[in-house]
UniProtKB/TrEMBL annotation:
Organism: human gut metagenome
The protein's name: Transposase
Length: 27
């Protein structure tokens, strides 16, 4: 895995986690 691919994967998972937290707080 290249560094760019790893950075993309990390940022993507971070965004998904933040979205899930936001949704849980909203409900």
């Amino acid at each position: 895995m290249t560094v760019i691919a790893r950075q993309l994967a990390i940022s993507t998972s971070t965004v998904i986690r933040k979205l899930n937290d936001f949704r849980f707080k909203h409900d």
